[in-house]
Design goal:
By secondary structure, the protein is mostly helical.
Length: 152
Amino acid sequence: MYLADRFNESGLFQNLGGLQEEIKIDYKKEEIFKEFLFRASSAYLILWEMENLNQKCIKEYFKREDMLNVKSQRIAFWSPDLVELLNQITPFFTTMRILQNSILKLLSLKENLATTPPKSLNDAIGHLEKYGLRENISEIISNYWNNGGREV
């Protein structure tokens, strides 16, 4: 399963279509590609569900706002939707970490890497030049890592 329509509507993965056509003749590469898209679809659906739950929580809060007697800056709010929203955080970040770690594996489908990259982007990030990536690709990966990827 992969959400091509939703990805296209959101402007995501615009450059993967050409890669998909190139690797169709290689079953192993096609499986790596399909796994990436499956996980990306999972992350997208979790995020979509989290946004829906967030909106439900906001609506629930405003339904009860007039009943509140606020005496402090801190407002305690609990609802089943909030619990469900909080329970989506771990699966989302787990999926994002798996996707993040598959970046070099996915790049190896197109690029002729000098050596096999490690399974973790964290282990590779300080040594990207070792894999023979083009400079602009190394720069994109480094920028991603330095602007939030490390926290995933």
